[in-house]
Amino acid sequence: MKEKWKIEVLTPVAILDGEETDGIVRLGPPDRIFIPDIFSFLKKYSEEAKMLHSIEEFSKKAVEKGYTAYALGISSSTGNFFIKNIKTFIKNPYYQPYIPGSSLKGSIRTAILYELCKKNPDIFEGLVEKLLRKENIKPTHADDEIEKEFMGKKGEKNFPHFDFLKSLRIKDSEYLDISTLKLYCVRVYSLQKNGVMKRKFPNYVEALPPGTVFTTEIQWEEYYFKEESLKELGFKNKKYLREELFKIINKFSEEIIKREMKFIGSTKYFKNMNKEKVLNFLKNLEKEIKILENNGCILQIGWGTGWFSKTVGMLLRDDLIKEIRRKFKLRGKGPIYPKTRRYAMVKENEGYPLGWIKIEKIEEVRDE
Questions:
Q1: According to the model, what pLDDT value does residue 181 have?
Q2: Which residue range(s) make up the domain with 238?
Q3: Longest dimension (CA), the chain
Q4: 253-297 pLDDT, tens per residue?
Q5: Residue 354: φ, ψ to 5°
Q6: What total number of domains does the chain contain?
Q7: Across-strand partners of 214?
Q8: In a domain, 93, yes or no
Q9: Which of 134, 79, 142, 156 minimizes the C-alpha distance to 113?
Q10: C or N terminus of the chain, fewer CB within 10 Å?
């Protein structure tokens, strides 16, 4: 069965391609940043380029000569005319941004795994304790055994063949115009001993702004839900995950929101940022989940969303978190983890957590 989903961006979403670029800011209104096409510039002005001595000089000259790959709006004043190391959004070869289906599916996988681990706390904690006793495990493979236990079939070693989410396909979203993206200054805040959230270094990031709407298509492969397949693959007790998918995602998101509200509420104040606006946003997000019920969901995706949105860490006891931090050398000291948060700034003293989207099913087509 195929479904068409409408996705609305609620806070800036950054799905990054692992690359970085530099840009030249030109003041408006509106303020814009121009990303130079350095290679085309060098091809045309190779002799003149020999007189330039820095990336900034190259970038300025390229933009002056009209060699621009693309230009973006800026969410808030940067105070800079040259910005280095901008983290770039994933795009096709024609500079059209899109949301990969794998990014959505990865976030959905985490929500489902959280549901299954929460339902079986003894098994989950036993696997975590077993993990802590093992040697030479890379952090990227820390949850492999947990995934096999809950997303696969008991006793089967070929996990990919028995992975429940092989039954779900999510297409990449439609391509969007490059002008849809904006440049955001993302501030990193760190909790200090005195309860103050102190502003640290900024990141500059290309992101989809709030209000952006796009669609994607998902498909449940009916073969995997036939009686014989359910039995063979061990999916029978997981069938409800499909039927209650939005509900499961919403429960996971609610837990993240409650944690964040508690964390922010316990701080004395945020230096140079209005924490009340962040709290009000999270409260409204909670209300939105209740309105949606099982007709849609709220989900956090992409870069900068934090440890809780990408793991089942909310289920861990404090002593297990402490041991995991020690074993995998996770940064930070003290009982609170994680202590840092990223906020995309929309004004000088106003920022919001990244990656929140709303998903609604707008069409359903049954296979013939």
A1: 98
A2: 2-15+98-365
A3: 72
A4: 999 999 999 999 888 878 778 899 999 999 999 999 999 977 899
A5: -85, 155
A6: 1
A7: 7
A8: no
A9: 142
A10: C
